[in-house]
Amino acid sequence: MEPTQRPLPVKRTGVRKFFSIFLLIVFAALAVFIYWRYFYVFGEGVKAGELNFLVKKGYVFKTYEGKLIQSGIRSRTVGAVQSYEFDFSVANERIANQLMMNSGKHFELHYKEYMGRLPWRGHTNFVVDSIIRMQDLQR
């Protein structure tokens, strides 16, 4: 009768440890990239102008999209006035409702600019997060 043999212990090489550390670094780099691209606020500021429209649209994620018309005096043609359009998204429903009820008025809107778009945040990189001032147009 033969004595029972134990299996030889498997030698652990540095390859397994290397791949574990490598995967950890790759996941950490991916997490940092996703945060920087989609959640880091790249810039913020204020835009003023006449609210042209604000609509709720989308196939899966219904988001609020709007356009602010800014009057300007610079133009490529001498003596002409050019208007600038600011396309934006609104994530807060309360702010969106206030904008929709006052379309055509002059607004000063505070916005945040992101490097990338998320489908549930809107179709633009600019997300309005507050209304600084609203007033009737003087004609």
Give the class from helix and strand content and strand pairing: alpha+beta
Number of strands: 5
Distance between the termini: 108 Å
Q: Percentage of helical residues?
A: 10-25%
Shape: elongated
Total DSSP helices: 2
Oligomer kind: single chain
- Mean pLDDT across all amino acids: 88
Mind explaining what this structure looks like?
- Strands 1-2-3-5-4 form a five-stranded mixed β-barrel.
- The mean pLDDT is 88.
- Helix content is 24%, strand content 38%.
- Strand 1 (41-57) and strand 2 (63-71) form a beta hairpin.
- With 139 residues, the chain is of the alpha+beta class.
Brief sketch in words of this structure:
It contains two helices and five strands. The chain has helices spanning 14-38, 93-101, and strands spanning 41-57, 63-71, 83-90, 106-114, 126-135. The radius of gyration is 27 Å and the shape is elongated.
Describe the protein's topology.
Blueprint lengths: L13 H25 L2 E17 L5 E9 L11 E8 L2 H9 L4 E9 L11 E10 L4
Parallel strand pairs: 3-5
Antiparallel strand pairs: 1-2, 1-4, 2-3, 4-5
